[in-house]
Request: fold
Amino acid sequence: MNEKKERFKLAKARVMKRFKNAVTAVDSRGKFYVAEDGRDVCNLEIHNALKSGVSLEKLALIKEVSHSNTILEAWLNAESMLVANRIIESNTERFSDEKIVGKNLE
Reply:
């Protein structure tokens, strides 16, 4: 029991560093997720894509992170997404289409 409580505190602290106003939210099906200003922090890529008006084909390529059955799982998912988003952001520029095309032309 204590291990889960400590793990929850650690995950929440890590998420709160990046998302200062993050809170636990519940969807219409009773599933839990972490949100900041009404936006699901695990699915920010979908939110940003909708905001920028991407096509439905491109939107379908974005994987949605499911909401969780427990509050602990919701915060652990949010913590995992921090790591995943950091990796994606750091590699997006390195492996951009322009750089790949440039390399192929050399």
About this structure: The first strand starts at residue 23 and ends at 26. The chain has a mean pLDDT of 84.
